[in-house]
Predict the 3D structure of the following.
Amino acid sequence: MKNKITNLLIIVGAFISYTVGAGFASGNEVLQFFGSWGFPESLLAIIGAVIAAAVYCGFIFAIGQKVNFEKPSESYFFVGGKILGWFIQIFVFAFIIGTFMLMFSGAGSLLNQQWGLPQWVGAVLMGIISGVVVLGGHKTVENVLGSAGIVILCYVFIFAIISLINPGSSIDQASGAAEAVAQGKVWQANLFAMPPLSWIPGLASLNNPFITGVLYSTMCLVSGFPFYLTLGKRTRNQKEAGIFGVITAIAFYLCVCFILLILLSNFDSLINPVTEEMYAFPVMAAVDSIWPAGSWTYVIIIFTGIFTTVTGFLWVMKDQFFPGQEMNGKSKIFIIVMLILGITLGGVIPFSALINFMFSIAGFVGLLMTICIVAKYFIIRRSEKLTN
């Protein structure tokens, strides 16, 4: 029983760590996709996200537990067939590379904003730490990500509780979200309003909290699919895979709820009074209003969130070019080269334009992947019943 719980915590922690990233840990994604709707509307977005994540996590873990893929590419063709599988593989890999580069820029901006350090310091530090962990092997990656994820979850839980009892915090401040969105101070995620989907007349008006939550969740699947499959391998049977998948989804969106509570209960502190724009790291601004002397601690949490995503992405990219291989000379060189590219190009090349474009369709690609994953699982089960 103890080993089962430990394994579950590692899976949950690794999932949280891989999915967190710079945008999530800073509070930007949570505010734009969930908090911008205010309260209680944001709860509809959470419900949509949990349902979508519980479905695909349960089935992905089950497929990962049942099927062994020698190459990552096999998993895409297995789920989507030859043509669709090829498209999904290319899209996922491009999405991961673009996001990977942006993580280094985020790390540099974070340390620059908090302590005034040069942009390159955060990027180099991120590269060194991530390289050490990934070069240590897959088990090292899973264990480090698992531990970091639990730390992030505990931290935001503590500050969510503080937000409930802090005299300066109040959920009533959430009423300012709608006005901030109307004034352009806070962006509200609307994947329908971004090219190429915006080219379809009237589509943007269909946006609502529930749909936004679902598409945010399926967007996370796009970059997480290869890694989520490996988490399924840690489960012992199909029942455990399904249960662990649902628990993992709930745990991750509990983390979202904690950050959402911190943001909405301290919404008045998220807007810079000088520029009248939202702070680049809104959760850090909220924590600063609660505990000014200790706001630096959340800098470490955000940096950890960026680190865990970079580390997970590195392993996925390595596995794409060196499938099924243990760490060797060629894969180590590949990792070092990717780290150097991330450090030197992450804050220079305008990958943001690429990512903004890809984000507009990533949620829908993830939704398509979810449908394919569920369908493929039942095809497998039906085939097994016919052969028995």
Summary: The mean pLDDT is 84. Residues 72-115 form the longest helix (44 residues). The two ends are 32 Å apart (CA to CA).
